[in-house]
Design goal:
CATH architecture of the largest domain: 3-Layer(aba) Sandwich
Structural class: alpha/beta
Bound molecules: NADP nicotinamide-adenine-dinucleotide phosphate
Strand order of the largest sheet: 1-11-8-7-5-6
Largest sheet: 6 strands, parallel
Shape: globular
Mean pLDDT: 97
CATH topology of the largest domain: Rossmann fold
Number of helices: 10
Distance between the termini: 44 Å
Helix content: 25-40%
Length: 291
């Protein structure tokens, strides 16, 4: 078994981005600039946004973090999005999800101009992805593709099973793994909570991508010998041994599954860092397209 080391790979990717930023600046260009909007102070969202801002700093991007109260009206949030859309100094905008219940996530996502939608959630970017046209790919699936590519995982002709059909991970992942591209050309099965024979299906996967948000859901009996396992899940669970009082768990029971597979992502240090690196990559692409 070999680890798909997302932390290491993301650091390599970030170093490559930093080199490009330096070269842009050396030629008199401007630093790429990512803006993030955080509504409320949900612990996990706060952690993710702070990690994104820190990553911007590491690669030499400018960043702006707009914090809004949890009770903010949808109108005020949409107005913040509009202001950033119109701000020519900003190349990419993300609105950290989830949003409070009184705000429509789809309305907010659709308000971001597709050219600055570096999370790749806008219907135009998702539609272009479906058609295999240039677009911002959703950051988590894009990070997984990058990880598979850098570890030279053969995907063509393989059976890829995706567990979870969210708009931000499972559904786009299933489309990307089926596309006629270097990392793609899989036969894909997309499973979800209504799938009746999940274990039978997952046991046939050469590549198993798990994104359902249930800690240690995938056990050894659900996995084929020699499979490649990508664990997207991140759930905070209580811990008596960490200082913070919690730790992160993936959707795969790592200790029992790892010995069975050829490659596996750890949690933490797998898909999470790749998601952030992909977001930076999309922001760099946006900055280059907009100059
Ligand atoms: P989500 O919106 O929470 O949806 C969960 C999906 O799992 C749904 O499609 C649901 O099916 C399916 N599901 C639930 N129970 C199931 C079961 N027993 N069998 C099969 N499928 C089942 O998903 P998400 O936003 O993609 O998040 C999934 C996990 O990934 C979470 O832990 C999240 O924190 C993590 N995540 C990590 C990153 C990262 O960068 N590493 C990024 C995004 C998300 P239905 O559609 O039928 O309800």
């Amino acid at each position: 078994m070999q680890l798909l080391d997302g932390k290491l790979t993301a650091n390599t990717l970030k170093d490559e981005i930093a080199i490009e930023v330096n070269s842009i600046i050396a030629k008199g260009g401007k630093k790429p600039h990512l803006a993030a909007i955080l509504v409320g102070s949900n612990g996990a969202s706060e952690t993710y946004v702070n990690a994104k801002v820190k990553a911007c700093d590491k690669v030499g991007f400018d960043s702006t973090l707009v914090r809004l109260d949890a009770n903010v009206s949808e109108e005020i949030l949409l107005n913040e999005v509009r202001k950033i859309n119109e701000n020519s100094a900003i190349d990419g905008l993300i609105v950290q999800l989830p949003l409070p219940k009184h705000i429509s996530e789809s309305k907010v996502t659709e308000k971001i101009v597709p050219e600055k939608d570096v999370d790749g959630f806008h219907p135009i970017n998702l539609g272009r992805m479906m058609l295999n046209l240039p677009s911002f790919l959703p950051a988590t699936p894009a990070g997984i593709l990058e990880l598979l590519e850098r570890y030279e995982i053969e995907t063509s002709g393989k059976h890829c099973v995706v567990i979870g059909r969210s708009n931000i991970v499972g559904s786009p992942m299933s489309v990307l793994m089926a596309r006629n591209t270097k990392i793609g050309n899989c036969t894909v099965t997309l499973t979800h909570s209504r799938t009746t024979n999940l274990k039978e299906i997952s046991r046939t996967a050469d590549i198993l991508i798990v994104a359902l948000g249930k800690p240690e859901f995938v056990t050894a009996d659900m996995v084929k010998e020699g499979a490649v396992i990508v664990d997207v899940g991140i759930t905070r669970v209580k811990s008596e041994i960490t200082k913070s009082g919690w730790k992160l768990k993936g959707d795969v029971a790592f200790d029992e599954v790892a010995p069975k597979c050829s490659f596996i992502t750890p949690v933490p240090g797998g898909v999470g860092p790749m998601t952030i690196a992909s977001l930076l990559k999309n922001t760099l692409i946006s900055a280059k397209q907009r100059k």
